[in-house]
Write a structure and sequence with these properties.
With 453 residues, the protein is α/β, with parallel strands linked by helices. It folds into 2 domains: 337 residues, Rossmann fold, CATH 3.40.50.1820; 87 residues, Immunoglobulin-like (Sandwich). The chain has 12 helices and 17 strands. The strands form 4 sheets. An 8-stranded mixed sheet has the order 1-2-4-3-5-6-9-10, sandwiched between helices. The chain has a 4-stranded antiparallel sheet with strand order 14-13-16-17, with no helix packed on it. A hairpin with a 5-residue loop joins β13 and β14.
Length: 453
Amino acid sequence: MGIALCLALCLVRPALAASPVAQVGSFSFPVTVNGDTLQIPYDGNQILTDSHPQVVRAVVIIPGSERNSSYGYETLLQCAAIAGLNDAASLLVVPQYLVEADVDFHSLPADRLYWSDSGWKEGNLSLSTASNPRPAAISSFAVLDSILYRAASENPNLQSIVVAGHSAGGQFVNRFAAGSAIQQTLESGFGVQLDYVVANPSSYLYLNGERAVPGTLASFAIPSADSCPEYNRYKYGLQSRNSYMSRLSSAQIISQYAQRRITNLLGELDTDPAHPDLDTSCPAMLQGAYRLERGRIYGNYLVHFYGAAIAATHATIVVPGVGHDSRGMFTSTCGVSVLFAAAGCEHVSVEDVPDARDDTIPRGLLWCAPNPFRTETRIFFGPPDGRGRAKVSIYDVRGRLLRALQENAPGRGMGSVVWDGRASSGEELPSGIYFLRLQDGRAAITKRVTRLR
């Protein structure tokens, strides 16, 4: 990417001050640093510092930029209910990484930890200012290490922990998985398995200086030196890492990251290059134009860097019909599957997602009328070239396949089919938003349809 192109694509929006959270977490978790005890709020279904012999699984969600732990907890409750595991055997935890605006707005006590708006996402040290002094500082990643250790030590029958995050929370989990050594302690000391879910982050941690060759998804090379001089600095690369991430050498990070069990969840509709929360800095733009593309490229990068065997521990899953929506991602069949080991993940193959930048890929046709509809709607569809085989399916907002409506034989061209608002079982579906999906080889189109009853 040359200087002119970088200037066109990589202009950074002015940083906006973080708005205070509407609500501070219901509980607080103590962290001791050099003899001083500080607190971080969290929401959850059980007290972290108490023993729960009945708990066998813990799920921790890291909220996004809005730091809304109560929303994350409500999402976890929905996921657990869908999985049929909303009971005392599950420990559900959503820590809340505050910023100074939260401390001021809620007049929080002097033992509450807080970070800069970008710092908590990267594992930086907590802050102390003249207005809000603190006796000690700690990395946001070290706080999570402490939470995970406490969960394992207080719950004698705990078998597994899943740490998940969406958007900014996904950035957090991606870097934490690479730099934390707590997994070895949990597995060797307590026999607890640790897994990670990274959903729709704005950027990823790269392990060497290569990035995708412009216009490709799976070819990698060192970018031009004049295009983006600091593109490989942490949080985008391993250069100039913060104190937490520097505890391990680059070689150690690379080695242990390959051994992590990570699911990268991507929203099929998270394709907006102008999304207001998308990182458009030069280092981020070198990773792709929008989140879905960046996730696909990163999956290919890991295979390029480590070899094909990495797919056994680092899965990339595209959730159909979901955009940049944390609840939509985690309550999808694939989200519930990776959070609670539930069955039935209906997903789109990464290879079947077309490259939106590739103008050589012909686009098919898909629409329906009426939309919204009450009793039935006619779906009009056609393969991209007017001759191929076209499959039309219906999904719900959680990404579950509800009904495969029709598969056109090759050479049929345009077609149409009536959908009566029923699932394949014959069940009458309720009012709500559904997604039509036209699949033709590696090309796919998704359209929204609303049913009113």
